[in-house]
Amino acid sequence: MIKINLLPVRAAQKKESIRQQISVLMLVLVAVFSGIAYVHISINNEINDVEERITMVNAEIESLKRKTGEVDDFKKKKRELLEKLNIIDTLSKNKTGPVLILDMFSQMIPEKMWLEKLKQVGNKVDIEGVALDNETIAIFFTSLKNSPRFARVELIQTKQYEFNAYKLTSFKLSCIIDLSSIKGQ
Prior knowledge:
The structure is a single chain. This protein folds into two domains: 10-95; 97-183, General secretion pathway protein M, EpsM (Gyrase A, domain 2). 64% of the residues lie in helices and 23% in strands. The protein contains four helices and four strands, in the order ααββαββα. The chain has a four-stranded antiparallel sheet with strand order 1-2-4-3, covered by helices on one side. It is rod-shaped.
């Protein structure tokens, strides 16, 4: 009988099977490492893109903060300028007030009277003056009381005294002046 030694064929087949399994394993490992490398590179690229966007957004935020600061400065300057303009407007409206008040009083003062002191605080006016007699003071008092520009005219004091052989009467009175009628002129 012939004996055939099948062990080398089996051993060769086993070696070939192991070689194929190692080749498949190597191929799978290469594929896995390639996949991992691809995912790693993709994630790194995304991270870099996100970091670039974050940097750009932060730069834009800083730029907007500067612009916001500039806008706030402009608003503050505008507010200050408006306040200054309001003050200038108020001053220019009020600068003619005292002149007009003096003009009104000069037209109302009788011939035998003169004013020594005129004091205005807000819309209240205190007047001190001298007249030759009480009748002249009464005429002045009545003309103030009848004027639509004056209210609450009050005679506070009259006092008679002698000066260089003339009998004179000093007086004090107060009234409220309608400032809107003066500013309208």
